[in-house]
Amino acid sequence: MSRKRIVIVGGGFGGLFTALGLAGAADVSLVSDEDHFVFTPMLYEYLSGEVEEWHIAPRYAELLNDNVNFVQGCVTRIDLTAHSVTVENHKQPLSYDALVLALGGLTNYAGVPGAEQYSIPFRKIQHADRLRQTMVEALDRVPPDLPPQDVKHALTFAVVGGGASGVELSTKMSDLLRDAFKRRHLPGEPRVLVLEMGDKVVPGMGEPIREYVEQALIDSHVELHTLTRVVKVNASSLVTEHGGKQEELDVAAVVWVGGVRINPVIEQLPVSKHGRGLLNVLPTLQLVEHANVFALGDIAYYPDAAPILAGTAQLAFQEADLAAGNVKAFLAGHELKKRQFEELGETVSLGTEKAAVLTGGKAFGGPLARQARFALYTARLPTWHHRLRVGASWFFEGTSPRPLLPLGFERSG
Ligand SMILES: Cc1cc2nc3c(=O)[nH]c(=O)nc-3n(C[C@H](O)[C@H](O)[C@H](O)COP(=O)(O)OP(=O)(O)OC[C@H]3O[C@@H](n4cnc5c(N)ncnc54)[C@H](O)[C@@H]3O)c2cc1C
Known about the structure:
Blueprint: E1 5-9, H1 13-22, E2 27-32, H2 43-47, H3 53-56, H4 60-63, E3 68-72, E4 75-79, E5 84-87, E6 94-95, E7 98-101, E8 105-107, H5 115-118, E9 120-121, H6 125-141, H7 148-154, E10 156-160, H8 164-184, E11 191-195, H9 207-219, E12 222-225, E13 228-233, E14 237-242, E15 245-250, E16 253-256, E17 260-262, H10 264-267, E18 279-280, E19 293-295, E20 300-301, H11 313-332, E21 346-350, E22 354-359, E23 362-366, H12 367-380, H13 384-397, H14 407-412
Parallel strand pairs: 1-2, 1-7, 2-3, 7-19, 9-16, 10-11, 10-16, 11-12, 18-20
Antiparallel strand pairs: 4-5, 5-6, 8-17, 13-14, 14-15, 21-22, 22-23
The chain binds flavin-adenine dinucleotide.
């Protein structure tokens, strides 16, 4: 009898961890557009050089054994009637008996003119590389005798979106730039702004951790502009609107972390959706209309998960365990399970020296919290083998940030 075919689309927190849970259970294929996983919560530390690429972006070839067939390519279409998945540059569509949808979200530019063309998103390794290079190039362009006010003007960076990403990114960028100023003996200081259209930053975050976040923004000299909407982005400036007044500001770069939108492949699926286009799933993670199709992570609306977990890696990671178990049960004709998902605690990186951690309702911050963040995340990395290698590297080789050196040194360093 032929083995059942399971196709998993998307190799992030939902897809990769489902694949690891299903390895060997059937003929399992994982399809993803990149050749590596990204542990997104530490992309900020990758930007600052506190961690290396191999720590947070291991290749699937290293994580998956022969029990999972990895297919690299962009999924362009899913046919739920024909039970097939079309992958760009692959002649034959992949057929499945059970399908797991885990394509995650994409940067949402909210239709702001110029935003997609001129700003830098922050979801992938190459985005962090591009941002780091842009910061270095901007620093390299400043002549040593430029007056301080002109230096500040030339080194103004805007971060659009005051969610956790905006805070983590802006404090990291500001600390890195300020350190570079000292090393290069530049006059004045850099300027990092967070532009947030709501009335406060990190709206979803609990009060105990918020105190640390607000203090960190002050300590890192990040300028916070709430109730400020970005209405246009140009090649070297952006236009903001605040209190009905528009203003154009020259910038060295704009980083866009202003929201997440649904993957177009998911938008095209003719199935029931919740607000914002998320796929409605049953408590077993099955699609309402297709018992052999499971969805999880940022694209799925799971009715019983606490709202605070929506759109988080910790939800996708926990759902992956349920998805793997239920796909096996479905193929074996057994009863499927439901599960209550827990809040596993929260941690935010705050500049290059500090972090804040919320666990068991209590928050703590500072350099110790930064160490705790590294320890906590070591345990969340995929596979024991990878965890051990990375844990040993962080313990023995350290996690100091890598300064923003002139471009030639950056490349050779
Ligand atoms: C910078 C950043 C920091 C974050 N920090 C935290 C944090 O601290 N804590 C937390 O809980 N959450 C955090 N998140 C959110 C978290 O990353 C997501 O909630 C989580 O990754 C969702 O998992 P997922 O499997 O649904 O999607 P993803 O992990 O995004 O995985 C989707 C996968 O699908 C692939 N893909 C997309 N489209 C296609 C296609 N057409 N064809 C093939 N493959 C495709 C992608 O390359 C990716 O591998 C952060 C997100 C970002 C961007």
